[in-house]
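User: Before I run my own analysis I want an independent prediction to cross-check against. Here's the chain; please return only the structure tokens and, at the end, one sentence I can use as a sanity check.
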Amino acid sequence: MRPAAVIFDFNGTISDDEGLLAELFERIFGEVGIEVPASLYFEQFAGYADDEICRLVLERFGRSGEPGLLEHLVERRAQLYMEAQQTRSTVHPQAADCVRRIAALVPVAIASGAARVEIEGVLESSGLRELFPVLVCLEDVQRGKPDPQGYLMARDELADRAGRPLPADQVLVFEDSEQGLRAALAAGMQCIVIEGTAPAERLTGAAGIVRALDWSIPLIRERFGED
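Assistant: Structure tokens:
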């Protein structure tokens, strides 16, 4: 059955940027004397909201009591991300095409732990912003993934716009991380995971694992009744 709606994660899903994020977190923490290599990022922190990653790292290294440090790190990460986007597009053509095809068939939204300014900036530059009437971002939730709050908020906003209920089990999520998968499942939704961020053995419960957000992949087309 075709889903009633689709909610996309952003980082690592629409935007192929988890490698970039690992580089940026290593850089910003290195600037304040904390070593966070990419291996540690992917093992422990990928999939959490940006502010939660910073909080968890500071707690791990005994730096959480330093006034203003958390806020500085979050702002610095956002600054570097936007600078990187000027020269390094992270939305691949096949991902943009896939999003457009899905948006032509069902209502779509984004639920992400990234800042709104980052999401909107990347969507604008890739020509996708107008497809998303609903964005649930870092600033909109009290509890980030793996809590389901963001996905439930996005579903409710889509339902309000549609003027009809959207049962959670009829909503399909595209994610890339273990934390995001757990959030989608906790919301009662189905979830297809883009591989590369989390090892397959940590993705129990996924409705499928695919190599990319790409309409040429049969599993994705079949979910929308397309051959």
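Sanity check: The longest helix spans residues 69-85.
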